[in-house]
Amino acid sequence: MSTRRSRRGRDRAFAAAVAAGLAAYNNLAGRHRWHEQCYPAANLAATGILLAAAAASGLTAGELGTRRDRLAAGMRTAAPPALALAGGWVILAAVPAGRPVLGDRRITGLTGRGVAYQVLVRIPVGTVLWEETAFRGVLQASLRRVLPGPAAIAVTSAVFGLWHIRPTADALRINQIASSRRAALGPVAAAVAATTAAGLLLSGLRERSGSLAAPMLLHLTANSGAVLAAWAVQNGAAGRRT
After folding, report:
1. Pick from 4, 11, 23, 48: which is nearest to 135 by CA?
2. How confident is the model over 182-206, as pLDDT tens digits?
3. 237 band by pLDDT with thresholds 50, 70 and 90
4. Hey, where are the domains in the chain?
């Protein structure tokens, strides 16, 4: 009995540490220039460290969603929403009324090589692999050992929302949408709510498919699709002006 109680205590401590660490990581490390300069490599290293910690805590490949025999199931589960999302990006880029949604100064001036780096390296390795391993993999699995399934998903998604505070604030500043911290509070809160909701969807795909491949595919479609659509719109506008 004491051994079981001790193990449960360790499981709770590990889950709490992962949740707190993830909530802080993106909002603190991301503020430093070295993190931006080494983004894929830094987050790839963080992925390896977190997986090593998960293995030391006793989490299995099945719990983490990394079993190879579930890969195909994950891809099948995510394919319909990913295709629908890709179609949505195409429609937004093609319809004049939807193009303002894609305005992002972070994309302005990117060359074709720069876009290729974003969609083939930075986003897949630095964002999707890292975030899905961290949230729908390690955090969700560690919380499921100490919480009921719906509660584990809810906490995972809430931490995922908090993860996006700094990136949202940065995007508002770069795009000159909010002139002060007070003006940014509303948009940042809305972004946290939206990414929490997105986290619920991604966690649901992970649970239903038994594989991290499902949320990874949808996440990749969302992020890379947004960059490609924004770049296409901005380059189309530049072409129309010349």
Report:
1. 23
2. 777 888 899 999 999 999 999 999 9
3. low
4. 2-236
Q: What angle do CA 196, 200, 117 make, to 5 degrees?
A: 70
Q: pTM score, two decimals?
A: 0.89
Residues 6+ apart with CB under 8 A from 76: 209
Encode pLDDT of 34-83 as tens digits: 777 899 999 999 999 999 999 999 999 999 999 999 999 999 999 999 99
Tokens of 115: 């876009």
Name the residue among 155, 160, 162 with its Cα closest to residue 131. 160
Contacts 24+ apart (CB under 8 A), 167-170: 167/26, 167/30, 168/192, 170/30
Tokens 């997105």 — which residue? 198
For residue range 126-168, what is the model confidence (pLDDT) as tens digits?
999 999 999 999 999 999 999 999 999 999 999 999 999 988 8
Is the confidence at residue 178, as pLDDT, over 70? no
List the one residue out of 193, 157, 191, 160 whose CA is nearest residue 175.
191
